[in-house]
Every structure is written in C-alpha cells, then in structure tokens.
Amino acid sequence: MGRVSLNPMVHADLMGTIVFPLLGIFVLRGAMFGWAKPVPVNVSRLKHPSRDHMVVAAAGPLSNLLLATVLFTFLIMVKFFSSTGSEIIYRVAANEISGQSILLPLTLVAYHGMMLNLLLAVFNLIPVAPLDGAAVLSGFLPRSLA
User: Fold this and answer.
1) Angle between the 49-81 and 85-93 helix axes, to the nearest 10 degrees?
2) How buried is residue 107: exposed, middle or buried, by Cβ count under 10 Å (0-12/13-18/19+)?
3) pTM, rounded to two decimals
4) What does the buried/exposed string (b/e) look like for 57-79 if buried means 16 or more CB atoms within 10 Å of the residue's CB?
5) How many helices (H) and strands (E) does the chain have?
6) Do 70 and 18 share a structural domain?
7) Same domain, 64 and 96
8) I want to staple 132 with a disulfide (CB 3.0 to 4.6 A). Which of 15, 33, 57, 139 is the partner?
9) Residue 123 to residue 30: CA distance in whole angstroms
10) What is the Cα–Cα distance from 36 to 11, expressed in whole angstroms?
C-alpha cells in the first residue's frame, strides 16, 4: 500500500483531491470539499485489537478537537489582549471582512479553522461503518454486537 509517507502525493485521490475541489471552485464559486485516500490499518497487527483499533480510530476526531481548542485559545487571546479584539471577533463571526487590523485575517482563518475542525470531529464520530465513529463504538460494545 505504501502510504506511510509524508509525501502528500501518496495520499492524493483523483476525485477527492483534484476533481471535487475544482468543481467547488468553478461551479459552486469557492465552496470546496475534498478528501484523501484513507490510511489502512491492519487490526491483526495490534497488540489488543479491539481496544487499540478504537484508540487508532479516535485519534482523528481527537486531533480535530485538539486543533479546534488551539484555535479557540488564539481567538480568546485576540479578544482579551487586543484593544480591538472584541470588535474583530464580532466582525469575523458576522462575516464582515473589512478593517485595517492585521489580526482580522488571522482571526478569520482561526475562526473558520476552528469551526471546520469541530464539524469534522462531529462528522467523523457518526457511527457509520467507514467513519471513525463506528470503530470507536465497536470498542465499547461486547464482541457479539461489535
């Protein structure tokens, strides 16, 4: 499979990495959505397969939550440590992207990054077979139901 690599091209999927984002840019006027190839996990190579598979599956949504927390912390710092922080946060939340502050584009990226990571964490925890939520749920169920 050869996907244990930091080379992004190994993870690229033709439809999810090229076609859908381009359709989003040109057809939906900027609303992009895409995906990469999933990283295969050989459960039989894990020491404690049922528990460890649950931990491996939970790593994705947990990393999304961690990144959302870091971005939220940045937004809190902007609000409390900047003289115009509250106004900047309000503008970003209301999608008013105008102003002179260098914090405005940084706050915009942080806000949308936080929201996207929260959305991805919740979506990936849906207990449907290809998503991480199914593997996390099966770790809590008895073997007869998993």
Assistant:
1) 120
2) buried
3) 0.79
4) bbebbbebbebbeebbebbeebb
5) 6, 0
6) no
7) yes
8) 57
9) 21
10) 6
What does the block give as tokens for 128?
Answer: 């449907």
One digit per residue, the tens of pLDDT, for the chain of length 146 reads 566 778 888 888 889 888 988 888 888 777 777 888 887 888 888 999 888 989 999 999 999 999 999 999 999 999 888 888 888 887 777 777 776 777 888 888 999 899 999 999 999 999 998 889 998 998 887 777 76
- Token pair of 38 as six digits: 């999933």
Cα–Cα nearest to 136, from 56, 39, 34:
56
Residues 12 and 70 both lie in one domain = no
80 in Cβ contact with 143 (< 8 Å): no
Q: Is residue 103 part of a domain?
A: yes
